[in-house]
Known about the structure:
alpha/beta, TIM Barrel, 8-stranded parallel sheet, isomerase activity, Xyl_isomerase-like_sf, IolE/XylAMocC-like, Xyl_isomerase-like_TIM-brl, isomerase
Amino acid sequence: xxxxxxxxxxxxxxxxxxxxxxxxxxxxxxxxxxxxxxxxxxxxxxxxxxxxxxxxxxxxxxxxxxxxxxxxxxxxxxxxxxxxxxxxxxxxxxxxxxxxxxxxxxxxxxxxxxxxxxxxxxxxxxxxxxxxxxxxxxxxxxxxxxxxxxxxxxxxxxxxxxxxxxxxxxxxxxxxxxxxxxxxxxxxxxxxxxxxxxxxxxxxxxxxxxxxxxxxxxxxxxxxxxxxxxxxxxxxxxxxxxxxxxxxxxxxxxxxxxxxxxxxxxxxxxxxxxxxxxx
Length: 279
């Protein structure tokens, strides 16, 4: 299997934790032994509007030098501009679509990355869920059409801890089917399945061939295998369905008292040890 680590733990999004420039993150994750890094599109590393062509070129050179790839691009949900593809505010929806397109273009320039992760939005008081679902579908469809021109695939993520529109495995499947485009597929994060008191390996089997990306984290965003979740079951399920994407850690960032190198190292060591046990 291929392993990647999300850069949130090395940034100050979504909370301040020990933060590092992207060059340092690339160097550290390559040294720990990762095949890829998942690029969170926020400061201090990859806000597309502060990252010019020369910086993107430099990142491409660094990735080649250290022998590591950008596994996926993750636009930041929330924040000042909103970033809500299902917003009742048309201006926010338009901004979000453009931001996602700009993140996509940045990933292509940095490393020909063709995987864009998508939080499908949320609705606020006074908004009908059916309206938010329609706005999300329309926005995602437009971004998917733009992505198809460059061979980029959108990965829809159910996010129960952070949003209220696409929360479950079934929600994500329904949204994918309603959009109905070949370059719109599925992913999930173990954190959100655990939040719903559901079994993460069930998500693997239910999503099946449409599962193209996954986020791994134990309870409380700890390193896999350190806080009670059964990752042997999840990893076996991935093998059973012939999953060939990155096994990506999105953990180590809820509080400022974590050490990202430790979380990254523990995560990789624990999952590689589990992989060796698979049947």
